[in-house]
């Protein structure tokens, strides 16, 4: 009868042990089982009890192993999910130009489900080329078949070595250049620098070598970047014109859906980004993305975008426009597009 009572108590204890076993590790279970066996060895029918406890321990060990196997399966599933897809060199790069609208273009492209892009500018082909192509590829997001890997670094367009380096990576790379009226672009460039360095000389003091003679200082980067025809010549030494798409920075503001249609066609993507994605922000003066489903606010570019420009004397802007005119006309001829800057 003593053994019968102990069996009843042990069966109840077995149920309790099984209900808590998911919180016990193998080592702790073994220690508890050893203590229990030692405690009952001196009781009547201890041999039978010892056998029962061994059976309970065997069951607990099986459950514990099962829980660990399940956990390992979940961990492995998470690992596979995080590593879904593969890292590839970008099939398309936004190579320019600074203050042309490259950030807006990239943010608009991110709407497309088949575009994966690096957030920060890698600056691989101008600053970090010595780190090697594997380092560069490792910066890229993972993509699935049918998706496009992209990056943007606007300074590539004006970097002498960049065309050769990009070509060495892949001659099939598609190149996108966002261009803007070079006069307006120069003022925007100056405005950005001025916000970081309030002690900067005036625009007119920097733009002229000799203000009385009206000679433009082409060594100043704000001026030099806008000589688009000169920079394009370097790229055409390595890539055919068909590999380049020139996006109008002005039309990206006035007709974002239209320009994005051209970009999607160039990249071989379905036209997913349309008018329904945009609204015009009157305060900032450029389009914003309508708020995504589940978001509390629309997506606009940062506070630094759309900042007011300082007042530049009209005669200074006129001289700068005269300087750019022949370069603009040559750029129109090279690209087969009239951007209407004159």
UniProtKB/TrEMBL annotation:
The family database entries (Pfam families) matched by this protein are listed as: Sulfotransfer_1
SUPFAM superfamilies xrefs: P-loop containing nucleoside triphosphate hydrolases
Active site, UniProt feature: 99 (for sulfotransferase activity)
Tell me which residues make up the Sulfotransferase domain.
90-325
Q: Please report any disulfide bonds recorded for this protein chain, giving both cysteine positions.
A: 288-300
Annotated signal sequence is: none
Q: Where in the cell is it found?
A: Endomembrane system; Golgi apparatus membrane
What is this entry's stated membrane topology?
Single-pass type II membrane protein
Which positions in this protein are listed as binding 3'-phosphoadenylyl sulfate? 99-103, 180, 188, 305-309
What Gene3D superfamilies does this protein map onto? P-loop containing nucleotide triphosphate hydrolases
Q: Which GO-annotated molecular functions does the record name?
A: [heparan sulfate]-glucosamine 3-sulfotransferase activity
Write down the EC number: 2.8.2.-
**Enzyme's top EC category:** transferase
UniProt keyword terms in alphabetical order: Disulfide bond, Glycoprotein, Golgi apparatus, Membrane, Signal-anchor, Transferase, Transmembrane, Transmembrane helix
Identify the GO cellular component terms for this protein. Answer: Golgi membrane
Keyword Oxidoreductase among UniProt keywords = no
Cross-referenced PANTHER family: HEPARAN SULFATE GLUCOSAMINE 3-O-SULFOTRANSFERASE 6, HEPARAN SULFATE SULFOTRANSFERASE
Family the UniProt entry places it in: Belongs to the sulfotransferase 1 family.
Q: What is this protein called?
A: Sulfotransferase
